[in-house]
Design brief:
Belongs to the universal ribosomal protein uL10 family. It comes from Spirosoma utsteinense. Pfam families: Ribosomal_L10 (PF00466). There is one protein chain. By secondary structure, the chain is of the alpha+beta class. It is built from 7 helices and 5 strands; from the N terminus they run αβαβααβαββαα. A 5-stranded antiparallel beta sheet has the order 2-3-1-4-5. It is elongated, with a radius of gyration of 27 Å. The N and C termini lie far apart (about 100 Å).
Length: about 180
């Protein structure tokens, strides 16, 4: 591979790392052709890009970013590596890995970056699946902020109806 080809691969990876805020680095040693094809099909069906890339290319691409990915150097960027990208859903690759591991334990999560937060090791898979997206968190916060206002409004509306009922009852008693 020529130097300019290597540079193009690193440049492409850098662009993906900058534009997609979450990515997963996996290892798939010893997979058969059928297992590899199944994994690639599952990725395609879910809109996940799966690329087998040399660790040195990943390392050089990560070095160009502002965030510190140095914890990946000693543990994650060893052996064979592949990178998974999904443009809008940070959980999708984690769910795919967990589902794929039901049929083959050869796919391992080595590390992930979710909005520059690093998760290292296969034991982080359930944590990654449980993470809420930014949109989900914003929705929960808005719901919590609206809740007291809704309670006040309903109390005022309910109190107004009670007050009107009491006044009507009192006026009916005076007439009788």
């Amino acid at each position: 591979m020529k130097r300019d080809e290597k540079g193009a691969i690193i440049e492409e990876l850098t662009g993906k790392f900058q534009s997609i805020p979450f990515f997963y680095i996996t290892e798939a040693n010893g997979m058969t052709v059928a297992e590899t094809n199944n994994l690639r099909r599952m990725c395609f069906e879910r809109g996940i890009e799966y690329k087998v890339v040399k660790n040195t290319f990943i390392k050089k691409a990560l070095e160009t970013l502002e965030a510190d990915f140095s914890p990946f150097n000693d543990t994650v960027l060893q052996g064979q590596s592949a990178v998974m990208f999904h443009p809008s859903n940070g959980k999708a690759p984690a769910k795919l890995i967990k589902e794929f591991r039901k049929t083959s334990d050869k796919l391992q999560l080595k590390g992930a970056s979710i909005d520059s937060s690093l998760f290292i090791g296969a034991d982080q898979l359930d944590t990654l699946i449980a993470l809420k997206s930014r949109e989900e968190l914003i929705g929960e916060i808005i719901g919590l902020l609206q809740s007291p206002a809704k309670n006040v409004i309903s109390a005022l509306q309910g109190g107004g109806n009670k007050l009107a009922g009491i006044l009507k009852t009192l006026s009916e008693r005076e007439e009788a």
